[in-house]
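Example 5.3 — DUF3126 family protein
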Amino acid sequence: MKPEEIKKLDAYFKRTLNPQIVVKARPRKNDSAEVYLGEEFLGVVYIDDEDGDRSYNFSMAILDVDL
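Solution (predicted structure tokens):
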């Protein structure tokens, strides 16, 4: 994922969910980025380029022990 895309996603998550969220590049992966709230890992944002329309999918797993 390009740095400018990560900055846009970071701003979007901060604006819509929580100003403390940080989007970071993933090591050795260029099709996704990691999402954190402080030091806590929340999930991964993936690029979806299907049919020429670019979108982003946020995937977050919730463990039963966290509920």
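Remark. The chain has one domain: 1-64.
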